[in-house]
């Protein structure tokens, strides 16, 4: 039950033979041409134009790399897609079974607070009674009615 027949897979590492010699020579030429160039008020427009051209060259090189990488990894992506289909099928078998047996967290009983009315009879002067009310309220006891007899 624990063993599933794994698909027969032939893995051939992606190989990308690139000759960057010509590209490096072209970059060296750009470097020689623009490395010591400084912007002034007179050539600011030209420098912006040069920067725009260098951005285009950089983007073209980057895009070529992205295209090559997509071509080299296309089979891997297709493999991952097919593999995911299979693991999703296994999960669709497992989930209903697990839902039946998974441990459920124990729910703690809800604490219900019920207001309680307590009556106290204090005898003495009003200052003493005021102190007792203040002490009760300080301890979280809500005093709602006070009746003074005397």
UniProtKB/TrEMBL annotation:
<dbReference type="Pfam" id="PF07083">
    <property type="entry name" value="DUF1351"/>
</dbReference>
<protein>
    <submittedName>
        <fullName>Uncharacterized protein DUF1351</fullName>
    </submittedName>
</protein>
<dbReference type="InterPro" id="IPR009785">
    <property type="entry name" value="Prophage_Lj928_Orf309"/>
</dbReference>
């Amino acid at each position: 039950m624990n063993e599933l027949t794994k698909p027969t897979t032939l893995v051939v590492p992606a190989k990308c033979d690139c000759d960057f010699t010509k590209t490096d020579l072209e970059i060296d030429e750009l470097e020689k041409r623009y490395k010591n160039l400084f912007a002034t008020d007179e050539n600011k427009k030209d420098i912006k134009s040069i920067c725009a051209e260098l951005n285009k060259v950089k983007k073209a090189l980057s895009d070529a790399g992205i295209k090559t990488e997509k071509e080299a990894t296309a089979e891997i992506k297709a493999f991952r897609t097919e593999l995911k289909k299979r693991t999703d099928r296994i999960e669709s078998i497992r989930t209903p079974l697990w839902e039946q047996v998974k441990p459920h967290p124990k729910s703690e009983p809800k604490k219900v607070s019920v207001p309680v009315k307590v009556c106290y009879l204090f005898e003495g002067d009003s200052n003493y009674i005021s102190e007792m009310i203040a002490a009760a309220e300080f301890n979280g006891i809500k005093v709602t009615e006070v009746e003074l007899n005397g």
